[in-house]
Amino acid sequence: MAKLLVVEDDESVRTLAARALERDGHAVNVAADGAQGLSLIREAAGSYDLVVSDIRMPEMDGIEMAKAAAALFPAMKILLMTGYADQRERAEELNGIILDVVQKPFTLAEIRSRVDRALACFAGA
User: Fold this and answer.
1) DSSP 3-state of 68
2) What are phi and psi for residue 95, nearest 5 degrees?
3) Closest among 20, 7, 6, 107 to 56, alpha carbons compared
4) What is the CATH number of the domain that holds 70?
């Protein structure tokens, strides 16, 4: 189906989200922080259909990664995740770069649904 990148510093969340999305037929790569995520985005020449990233991470947070990815690949589609209200507010400055912010904690059904919706939004575009 789609080529996805999941960027999340919490290994259990990263693994569960990736497995759920793989069960939906997506090809999923994973990264443990924004710096690693940006490196994978560069290596893939921006070819991910969707990047799903936590905001608050070590090395490089999801907002910094989203800005850098958008500068390199303006068509890149990014869905952010956070459990922090202040981080959600920070993400508002990325209007036009990110598709949405998913509130954590989320269920696997929620993340699968949000990813499907995000992919559907630009599949017909």
Assistant:
1) helix
2) -55, 125
3) 7
4) 3.40.50.2300
What 8-state DSSP symbol labels residue 62? H
Classify residue 120 as exposed, middle or buried by CB count within 10 Å of its CB (0-12, 13-18, 19+): exposed
Whether the CB-CB separation of 100 and 114 falls below 8 Å is answered with: yes
Whether residue 52 contacts residue 34, with contact meaning beta carbons closer than 8 Å, is answered with no
pLDDT of res. 124: 55
Domain count for the chain: 1
Number of H helices, E strands in the chain: 5, 5
Tally the residues of the chain. 125
Give residue-wise pLDDT tens across range 46-56.
999 999 999 99
Q: How far apart are CA 80 and CA 58, in angstroms?
A: 15
Domain that holds residue 86: 3-123
